[in-house]
Design goal:
It is built from ten helices and 18 strands. With about 375 residues, it is of the alpha/beta class. It has two domains: about 130 residues, Copper amine oxidase-like, N-terminal domain (Copper Amine Oxidase, Chain A, domain 1); about 220 residues, Aminopeptidase (3-Layer(aba) Sandwich). It is elongated. It binds zinc ion.
Length: about 375
């Protein structure tokens, strides 16, 4: 069994090596007033640093376990554990997402350079700066005039659900969820765009199909502070109505499971679905990264749901949790909002009303703004 694994791993390593075009790029790293000139690998346009190079910078060493596909780097007095072919790494029990998988080539483990040092800056609470060819670590960058507290805007990725060939839930009158949620998302974006506290990124601003994993990938690539996916619920029971806010966790109950199953069905419209049946999802999500953000995501869901309850005519259901694939892998607090049931006549009428859509957008804005203020207070 082990031998078979080893042969398979060797084959994968070989294929990985053949598939990638590697070029070198000189980068200077200035760390604690010492300067290191390194040749970094560029693969498909992204910079990678080897764990050998990291070991030099962090005055440490690396240990590879091929059978476990793991490598441990002891550097900067910490243990960093990388998994070959995986974007996840851990440091002292905390999981982090490198966004791109670590690659293994020529006996070297190559780690995405920019995301590694982004994570490094979080772990060591250090200001890390990267210009086109120089990376500054602490000790040097602090010499610059940067004495004012940083006032960077909070970055939110707003994800209008579905789009293109995926209409989402459809009412018996033919209203498409994808159209309603895009309209609400654009209104929310408009409310936030003029506010200097916020930077807004939309996953789609038109009627476009987007795979579920691409939506969180956008949020991760942008190092967003928040991810919010906007939806309308649907049910065979036309009496079912009301707004509901979810965060990612194995399903709380059958109703939550049904909402997740409906939203996850978009996966089956993708060209290379990551699953062959929707039953697989709870299993895949068992090891999810959102665990790290569970407390914050549930708090964000509560704040938004309170706003819905206070400001909107929809009955307020409750905050719940379920395995929504679109929230999987988000490396930040993330929620999925079911604004109301498009399959209920009263809810549908409200959802189609421009003024109500504006109120929904305003409630979302209030909820996330409260979250931002709380978040900043807690991180002080
Ligand atoms: Zn949906």
């Amino acid at each position: 069994m082990h031998l078979k694994n080893l042969l398979l791993l060797q084959l994968l390593l070989f294929l990985g090596f053949c598939a990638s075009q590697v070029a070198a790029k000189p980068v200077t790293i200035i760390s604690h007033s010492q300067s290191h000139n390194l040749e970094l690998a560029t693969i498909e346009g992204y910079l990678y640093i080897s764990t050998d190079q990291l070991a030099i910078l962090g005055e440490g060493q690396r240990v590879t376990s091929y059978l476990k596909r793991k490598e441990t780097l002891k550097a900067w007095n910490r243990s960093f554990v990388f998994t070959i072919f995986s974007p996840y790494m851990s440091c002292e029990g905390q999981n982090y997402n490198l966004i791109l998988p670590a690659k293994y080539q020529n006996n070297q483990l190559l780690v995405p350079f920019e995301s590694f040092f982004h994570i490094y800056s979080i772990i060591f609470d250090e200001d890390v700066r990267f210009t086109s060819d120089t990376l500054y670590l602490k000790g040097f960058s602090n010499r610059s005039s940067n004495t004012e507290p940083e006032q960077r805007p909070f970055k939110i990725v707003i994800d209008p659900g579905h789009g293109g060939k995926d209409p989402g839930a459809i009412s018996k009158n033919g209203t498409h969820e994808k159209t309603v949620v895009l309209s609400i998302a654009l209104k929310l974006s408009e409310l936030l765009e003029t506010n200097p506290n916020w930077e807004v990124i939309l996953t789609r601003s038109e009627d476009l199909f987007l795979p579920l994993s691409r939506r969180t990938q956008i949020a991760n690539e942008q190092h967003a502070d928040l991810f919010i996916s906007i939806h309308c619920n649907g049910s065979k029971n036309q009496e079912a109505r009301g707004s509901e806010c979810f965060y990612l966790s194995p399903a709380e109950n059958d109703q939550a499971r049904a909402a997740a199953a409906l939203e996850n069905a978009s996966l089956l419209l993708e060209e290379n679905p990551p699953i062959s049946s929707l039953d697989e999802i709870e299993f895949i999500l068992a090891d999810m990264l959102q665990n790290e953000y569970l407390r914050e995501s549930s708090r964000l869901a509560v704040l938004i749901q309170n706003e819905f309850k206070n400001n909107l005519a929809f009955p307020s259901r409750k905050v719940s949790y379920a395995p929504f694939y679109v929230l999987n892998g988000a490396f930040m607090p993330a929620v999925l909002v079911e604004t109301a049931f498009i399959t209920n006549d009263e809810d549908e009428d409200l959802l189609l009303n421009e003024e109500v859509q504006k109120d929904i957008a305003l409630s979302l804005k209030n909820g996330i703004e409260e979250f931002r203020v709380e978040f900043l207070e807690n991180s002080r």
